[in-house]
Specification:
319 residues, alpha/beta, TIM Barrel, 2 domains, 6-stranded parallel β-sheet, 4-stranded mixed β-sheet, 11 helices, 12 strands, globular
């Protein structure tokens, strides 16, 4: 549930809301989480937080759900607040860290510092919670080098999972006013995808799960509604992973004296779209780069997901 909607939402309606969302899931829907996202859960008044946690706990006791997770600001993670939620089946807390650069955080008036994030992760781990970190790239004052430095600092904290979001400009926001004045320029989509690819691979190398790249498509994120500018794409994460698969193929093929035509790729069905690329972009690029007429993708459910077979040769595919 989006926590921005909680002021107008009653805890006693949570059960009906949850059951409505689970109707289409069928029996194979476990584990089910009651999740409060989109705002600062622990920043709400205590008399709002507790009723929602109680309603969510009731769903778990009934067997409707399995656990609770929520997102909140790093500076709301205090011993007092953790004592408040300690009696509830909360499994995961995600922190809106956004950046580990205090200069960027101050420019964006985030109201917390990098040290608040470090302390929050430590407190949560000390209480046995799984910890997620949410990062944003392309914030005012951000650079690719600064963003990568943030990722290195986050990886050193060893969170359980990470989300990476691009910064976009929404109508009515302070950022929209900066954009209108020419004080802020969003990162181009291609550059943002390429940069997030580096961040994803770094986390992968350090065995930290990236559970989302890109913003969840919604009515708000449409040019005709609230989206003003920025690197939004409904399949942002797919673009990132497709680039990775393309890079792997190019790295392998450019070492060969000749490339077969047709080029035959054998892959697990799960990786078909990543290999082909968004709207078959990777296929078109491979044909142009290696001067071949055809690229054939053969689906094979017996192929390991983390390998591609190119002309019978297995090559690792980070995913």
């Amino acid at each position: 549930m989006d926590t921005d909607k909680l002021p107008d939402f009653k805890p006693e309606n949570l059960r009906q809301y949850a059951l409505g969302n689970l109707k289409h899931k069928g029996e194979n829907r476990h584990p089910v989480e009651v999740a409060f996202y989109g705002g600062t859960f622990l920043g709400m008044p205590k008399d709002r937080v507790i009723p929602f946690l109680k309603a969510a706990a009731d769903l778990i006791n009934e067997g409707v759900a399995d656990q609770i997770r929520f997102s909140t600001r790093p500076d709301t993670i205090t011993d007092k607040n953790l004592d408040l939620i300690s009696g509830f089946p909360v499994s995961t807390v995600e922190l809106g860290v956004q950046s580990m650069d205090d200069r960027v955080l101050a420019t964006c008036e985030r109201g917390h510092s990098a040290s608040d994030s470090v302390k929050a992760v430590s407190l949560l781990k000390g209480r046995g919670y799984r910890v997620g970190v949410q990062l944003m790239v392309g914030l005012p004052g951000d650079t690719e080098a600064g963003s990568f430095s943030s990722v290195e600092k986050v990886a050193a904290l060893a969170p359980d999972c990470v989300r990476i979001y691009p910064t976009v400009v929404l109508k009515g926001s302070e950022l929209a006013r900066w954009y209108a004045r020419g004080d802020y320029t969003p990162w181009p989509l291609d550059a943002c995808v390429g940069h997030v690819k580096r961040l994803y691979l770094y986390f992968l190398q350090h065995k930290i799960r990236v559970i989302r790249m890109g913003l969840q498509p919604s009515e708000t994120l449409r040019p005709e509604s609230h989206l003003v500018a920025g690197p939004f794409h409904p399949a942002f994460g797919h673009l990132v992973q497709s680039e990775i698969f393309y890079d792997v193929l190019v790295s392998f093929l450019q070492e060969k004296a000749t490339v077969s035509d047709p080029l035959i790729l054998r892959i697990h069905p799960f990786n078909v779209s990543k290999t082909a690329g968004y709207i078959n972009r990777n296929i078109a690029l491979l044909k142009a780069r290696f001067h071949i007429h055809s690229v054939l993708i053969r689906q094979d459910p017996f192929c390991p997901r983390d390998f591609l077979f190119v002309e019978g040769i297995a090559i690792p595919a980070p995913c």
